[in-house]
TrEMBL record:
It comes from Dissophora globulifera. InterPro entries: HotDog_dom_sf, PTE-AB_protein, Thioestr_dom. This is Thioesterase domain-containing protein. Residues 127-201 form the Thioesterase domain.
Length: 238
């Protein structure tokens, strides 16, 4: 259930705070501090350079009348990044090996992302695991739904996926999502995953719902729940 994987250059401290608060709420207060993300490897740097030369990326960069480029996961704090599924856990050589090229339409009704899926993301040999494709579809639909929801925060309520073609590993893929409708606290989105040559790998429809109560209150409730269920600290013997 992504909170937000998309950020804008215009995001204010107030905009970012609820997301950071929710991230903090699902982290133990007394947990051991975690290191920052490592520097890009030689393979990641090479793939990142290849990404920027792809025709679809260059075309979206040039088309500033319809698209604006966004930074993926910039609202995920450094200390939490290593625990974040797509920005941290699944990032790295032979996994999700690059920072996606991410574009949002000017009216915020569409999002397009180009990313690389490595060899270590397989189910069958050399075929990307369907669960990973589901994760990518969940992410891309969230990136479209959330900016259009009240409070710009929401959670996945439903995700329906059709797998159309095996996704061969070690290639760039294109994820695209489009807002279908907004009904109060509900946002309906459709999405596709394609190869660079246009082969449809999977498509999906999704429903996202904005919470009734403020995210800060959800964070407080989660923090309280974790505090109440945390194991007691052993006391030294007298």
């Amino acid at each position: 259930m992504p909170i937000s994987a998309l950020s804008t250059a215009e995001a204010t401290t107030a905009d970012a705070a609820p997301i950071k608060t929710l991230v903090e709420a699902i982290t133990w207060e007394d947990s051991i501090s975690t290191p920052k993300a490592p520097e890009p490897s030689a393979l990641e740097s090479e793939l990142q350079q290849q990404l920027e030369t792809l025709d679809i990326v260059k075309a979206h960069v040039a088309d500033n009348t319809q698209w604006k480029r966004r930074a993926a996961y910039s609202l995920v704090t450094d200390d939490y990044r290593v625990h974040h599924l797509t920005a941290g856990t699944l990032r790295g050589d032979n996994k999700l090996g690059v920072s996606p090229a991410l574009f949002q339409s000017l009216d915020e009704s569409q999002v397009m992302s180009v990313l690389h899926i490595g060899l270590s993301m397989c189910g069958h040999p050399n075929i990307t695991h369907g669960g990973l494709l589901a994760t990518l579809l969940d992410e891309i639909t969230a990136m479209t739904a959330i900016p259009n929801l009240p409070g710009k925060t929401g959670f996945t309520a439903n995700l329906n996926i059709n797998y159309r073609h095996p996704c061969i590993a070690n290639q760039f893929v294109v994820a695209h999502s489009e807002l279908t409708s907004v009904e109060g606290r509900k946002a309906f989105v459709k999405a596709t995953l394609k190869t660079l040559d246009g082969t449809v790998l999977a498509d999906a429809t999704a429903l996202f719902i904005a919470p009734k109560i403020p995210v800060s209150q959800i964070a407080e409730q989660l923090t309280l729940a974790k505090t109440q269920t945390a194991p007691a600290t052993p006391q030294p013997e007298a």
